Amino acid sequence: MAEFVDSVTVHLKGGDGGNGAHSIRREKYKPLAGPNGGNGGRGGSIILRCSEGTNSLLDFRMLPHRSAENGHHGEGDYKDGQKGDDIVLTVPVGTMVFEAKGEVGKPKHRGELLADLRTPGQTFVAAAGGQGGLGNHALANKAHRAPGFALLGEPGEERDLILELKSIADIALVGYPSAGKSSLVAALSSARPKIADYPFTTLVPNLGVVEAGDVRYTIADVPGLIPGASEGKGLGLQFLRHIERTQVIVHVIDCATYEQDRDPMADYEALEKELAAYDKNLELPIGAIPISQRPRIVVLNKMDVPDAKDLANLVRPDFEKLGLPVYEISTASHEGLKELKFALAREVSKTREIVRKLEAEHEQERVVIKPLEMARNRAKNQVGPAFNVIRHGDPEGNYWFVVKGEKIARMVIQTDFNNNEAVGYLADRLASLGVEDALKAAGAVEGDEVHMGPAGNEVVFNLEPTITAGAEGLDDAPLVSRGDDIRLRDYGYAKRRSNSQRRVDYHEEMDRRAEARAERERERRAGHWSDPSVTDSPEQPNE
């Protein structure tokens, strides 16, 4: 029998984005025809998908580390890199995804709830792939026609997550060990759980599907509870969480127990006390009914034993005084099972209707604010300041400035610091965002130490407000501005004129021609022109 696992810690890594290409197009008679480097491909993502065909998290325990494929690098001739393939991992219905917190090398504990996968087909991107870097063809514009660099790809998202499974069933069967819960699941459905005559036979929840007329519902056998379970005794809290998603709670009471200090009413009260203690610190989803308010049904089991029938007749009035419906059954002889099956169906139908109304009420109360139109790029989706400048210092009087921001970190990650022109491009982008002005406002002066970039991989440099980088000569002096190349000025689109420039040139040429005609006419009227048959040279006689 396959092992049941309902809680695992996994380490997921999205694929890195491919680097952009730095390339120049070359063809006959046009040795430098402009940049043609392609963009890098996006890295693959790791996606969790909810599936009814999966009932355990065992696969994640066997393989807790998963990595998606990296994106391919861009190439010349305008070739973009191929995208990395996504990895789709199936999880059972009822899986909750938490952020894992804790020190490296030590057990993790649950952090923020990231996703609650309750519907088949529902997906969650657990680790997103990195964005591919732009090639120099995409970076070219009118001002910078020949970028001598390309952007690097972003690393994929890397994170530790805790996956917890909370079974989603309509009915939860609770009771002491060996009360007959697994036998009841086997008798009402086609499930075949392990059944034996010793306590704690059931170590994992067993789910079964029951059909009663036109009503179809599921029942879950929660492993045996004992007094102190809410404090960790017995199986403790390990399986109490599987009760959170159920709608009806059925107490299965053993009326044939041989333990002298137990009786049906005491068993019921002890388990209710544990459920109440567990319910205090429970955070329920919208529309869910608190455990203390969910319908209860009492099932007196093992009526095939003679003494059990007598005991049931004694305790039945006590349960009915509490307003609880009581059913006497025998999973061995199937006595009373048909009546119980349809009674559970009626209770589930009523509870489902109540839950639907509660969800509808909460949906009306919920205020959802949506923008009229979401921008397609991340820059326009930015809410609030794009970065913050913080000054840090130590007791020795040293100080430095830290520039924090998601966009700033992304710019630093994509910069190739071995390329001076790429560094100059980063400086221009930071200046356009106002980083230099913000540093000056925070008190930074030229030469101060500045940190920026992602945490753990920061770039440290000294503040220099003006950076020039471009094509350099033999003496390392910049010949042209960054992103330009004098060799491209005689080729390709560098010589092309726009329509407006053509019109301006045409009118200027017409004006020059009109001015030349007017000048010749003035000279003719002034007598500057002479008869070609008359010569003024004394050496050449007239004809």
From TrEMBL:
<keyword id="KW-0378">Hydrolase</keyword>
<feature type="binding site">
    <location>
        <position position="182"/>
    </location>
    <ligand>
        <name>Mg(2+)</name>
    </ligand>
</feature>
<dbReference type="InterPro" id="IPR036346">
    <property type="entry name" value="GTP-bd_prot_GTP1/OBG_C_sf"/>
</dbReference>
<dbReference type="Pfam" id="PF09269">
    <property type="entry name" value="DUF1967"/>
</dbReference>
<dbReference type="InterPro" id="IPR036726">
    <property type="entry name" value="GTP1_OBG_dom_sf"/>
</dbReference>
<comment type="subunit">
    <text>Monomer.</text>
</comment>
<dbReference type="GO" id="GO:0003924">
    <property type="term" value="F:GTPase activity"/>
</dbReference>
<feature type="binding site">
    <location>
        <begin position="175"/>
        <end position="182"/>
    </location>
    <ligand>
        <name>GTP</name>
    </ligand>
</feature>
<keyword id="KW-0342">GTP-binding</keyword>
<dbReference type="GO" id="GO:0042254">
    <property type="term" value="P:ribosome biogenesis"/>
</dbReference>
<dbReference type="InterPro" id="IPR014100">
    <property type="entry name" value="GTP-bd_Obg/CgtA"/>
</dbReference>
<dbReference type="InterPro" id="IPR006074">
    <property type="entry name" value="GTP1-OBG_CS"/>
</dbReference>
<comment type="similarity">
    <text>Belongs to the TRAFAC class OBG-HflX-like GTPase superfamily. OBG GTPase family.</text>
</comment>
<protein>
    <recommendedName>
        <fullName>GTPase Obg</fullName>
        <ecNumber>3.6.5.-</ecNumber>
    </recommendedName>
</protein>
<feature type="domain" description="Obg">
    <location>
        <begin position="2"/>
        <end position="168"/>
    </location>
</feature>
<dbReference type="InterPro" id="IPR045086">
    <property type="entry name" value="OBG_GTPase"/>
</dbReference>
<dbReference type="GO" id="GO:0000287">
    <property type="term" value="F:magnesium ion binding"/>
</dbReference>
<dbReference type="InterPro" id="IPR006073">
    <property type="entry name" value="GTP-bd"/>
</dbReference>
<dbReference type="InterPro" id="IPR031167">
    <property type="entry name" value="G_OBG"/>
</dbReference>
<feature type="region of interest" description="Disordered">
    <location>
        <begin position="497"/>
        <end position="543"/>
    </location>
</feature>
<dbReference type="Pfam" id="PF01018">
    <property type="entry name" value="GTP1_OBG"/>
</dbReference>
<feature type="domain" description="OCT">
    <location>
        <begin position="379"/>
        <end position="465"/>
    </location>
</feature>
<dbReference type="InterPro" id="IPR006169">
    <property type="entry name" value="GTP1_OBG_dom"/>
</dbReference>
<feature type="binding site">
    <location>
        <begin position="330"/>
        <end position="332"/>
    </location>
    <ligand>
        <name>GTP</name>
    </ligand>
</feature>
<keyword id="KW-0460">Magnesium</keyword>
<feature type="binding site">
    <location>
        <position position="202"/>
    </location>
    <ligand>
        <name>Mg(2+)</name>
    </ligand>
</feature>
<keyword id="KW-0963">Cytoplasm</keyword>
<feature type="binding site">
    <location>
        <begin position="301"/>
        <end position="304"/>
    </location>
    <ligand>
        <name>GTP</name>
    </ligand>
</feature>
<keyword id="KW-0479">Metal-binding</keyword>
<feature type="compositionally biased region" description="Basic and acidic residues">
    <location>
        <begin position="502"/>
        <end position="528"/>
    </location>
</feature>
<keyword id="KW-0547">Nucleotide-binding</keyword>
<dbReference type="InterPro" id="IPR015349">
    <property type="entry name" value="OCT_dom"/>
</dbReference>
<feature type="domain" description="OBG-type G">
    <location>
        <begin position="169"/>
        <end position="349"/>
    </location>
</feature>
<dbReference type="GO" id="GO:0005737">
    <property type="term" value="C:cytoplasm"/>
</dbReference>
<comment type="function">
    <text>An essential GTPase which binds GTP, GDP and possibly (p)ppGpp with moderate affinity, with high nucleotide exchange rates and a fairly low GTP hydrolysis rate. Plays a role in control of the cell cycle, stress response, ribosome biogenesis and in those bacteria that undergo differentiation, in morphogenesis control.</text>
</comment>
<dbReference type="Pfam" id="PF01926">
    <property type="entry name" value="MMR_HSR1"/>
</dbReference>
<dbReference type="InterPro" id="IPR027417">
    <property type="entry name" value="P-loop_NTPase"/>
</dbReference>
<dbReference type="GO" id="GO:0005525">
    <property type="term" value="F:GTP binding"/>
</dbReference>
<feature type="binding site">
    <location>
        <begin position="200"/>
        <end position="204"/>
    </location>
    <ligand>
        <name>GTP</name>
    </ligand>
</feature>
<feature type="binding site">
    <location>
        <begin position="221"/>
        <end position="224"/>
    </location>
    <ligand>
        <name>GTP</name>
    </ligand>
</feature>
<feature type="compositionally biased region" description="Polar residues">
    <location>
        <begin position="532"/>
        <end position="543"/>
    </location>
</feature>
